[in-house]
Amino acid sequence: MTVTAGTSTLTKFADPMPLPARLRADPADPLPTFTVRTLAAERQLHSELPPTALWTYEGGFPGPVFEVRRGQRIRVAWTNGVTTPYPAVDAYLPDAPGNPSLTMNDPGVGAAQPVPGVVGLPAWLVTHLHGAVTGGGNDGWMENALFHGDAQLSEYPNDQPAMTLWYHDHAMNITSLNVFSGLVGMYLLRDEEEDRLHLPSGGQEVPLILCDRNLATDEFGRLTGQLLHKTSGTLPFLGPYTLVNGRIWPYLEVRPGWYRFRVLNASNSRTYRLHLLDDQDQQVTVGAAWQIGTDSGLLGAPLPLTAEGLTLAPAERADLLVDFGAFAGRALRVVNSAPAPFRGDPVPAGYVLGTPLPASRLPEPDVMQFRVLGEPPVPEFTLPTELSASYYRLTHALLPADHEHRMLGLAADPDGTLGLWELGVVPDSEAPAKGQVLDGIVQVTDADGKTTTYKRLARHFDDQLNWRIRQDGWEVWRILNLSGILHPIHLHLTRFQPLSIDAYTTTAFDPALGGTAGGEPVAHTGPLPIDPSLTGWKDVMRVPPGQLVTIAGQFRGASGRYMYHCHILEHEDAGMMREFAVMPGVVMDVDNGMGGMSGMDDTSGMDGMGAGG
Asked: Which domains does the chain have, with CATH numbers?
């Protein structure tokens, strides 16, 4: 199979899928210390391409996979060894909805223009271990980036259950560019609870790190291998080439039997909805794949992957088991059915999986191929009925009485930029008059018919710090999406579960005026089911447009200043990022006139907002 890109073609499933190097912490070492360098490197993304210039961790794209035991504290010196210029062309296409040149390759950069200044950017880098419980000074604060020759010294206690974490660059304003250049890697935490399951291991445990990229062409339309970060006026990056472990459309040879796949969506913006097709009959396989874990740990019991597929927004992870026992001698293909921009809609009726959707910025749905060999089979394995005995389904009733409430809006500003609107309750006396719209005032009607007036406290990164959180305290965050697309929201330090998801009519919100008219609130229309795959412990939550997602989590184990943000990296760089501080409660209780902001958004007594609240 081939795919046309300009006047060039790349053969699908031509290259074996590479496996990243491993970094294992010695259990006998009381404090293992690693030095991981960021290096410029050239790697072939496909055997038919010239080498591609990248920025990498230790020369690999993706970087090495860490393997660490729970409770095994390690130190990492993230050392900046990059001396080369930014390796990609960064190009801007004036907003043109539906223009296929945004994702399909064309000669050069087509109508797009190179973004001024990017070619001269320094290698200014900082690494964040995504999902880690670690002090604020170790977390990879985005303005603490480093130049060539400097080292970021981070310590990770790893006092967390078995889970799939990952690390990536997080430099202020340029995270999207640095990650796009290749700065990603996986980090696996193991514990005794996972050991007791005797899950597939060794060669039967495989990382699958997915991302999409675009490639520049020369004046003759031939692919040069150079990365092309091509965006539009309102849409973030979306590329036509899907990579798994740094290779475009690879294949993986597997033996009959069970495999464990640690899947990460490391894309800047693209959401994947993955399906496993049998190439023999082009039908989706059902009953062969099971999800056993989410972002932050194992589920209580395996979940079968259905024909609707597995959805992963940027930064989400899934721990999967797949049984290839019934497919000896056959090929299976992983395909994506998620259009872009993704809004959370189900697979359309009548859509044939694997069919390109160029108008929806999905010109090539293929992801990779599995080639199932004959003999010998892998060691026998029996799918357990119970996974994590420590897992429990979180409900509002299980939260301590002193938990805090927050209200967050995902909204477009009058100038069209997106922001994170931290909202605080104001008295009815400050509500707008009937029909009047006041900038930053939003009225919301909950499931009980009660209308609450909120005032915007902050929306952009440089606005004042509002949310101070007690260390080890539990919090409930209500996230209302007033924009038109899905946003994957990531909270640093904590893991959480969704308590409820509710539908809202958001047409009353006027982004041009920055609020809702008095007496015309954003209104609750009904509760929505929670997908079972979202009921595990998470650190990224998909928030579709017109929905209010209520999450709860504990901010335990560390303190400092952290971030929360949209993990569409172009959105994060453009302003969808805010900060919060975690402090010991006894310190917060010292009244020196500098604190006291933790309750600015007090929504006590509002537990009725949304089903399950």
From this structure: 2-372 (2.60.40.420), 396-588 (2.60.40.420)
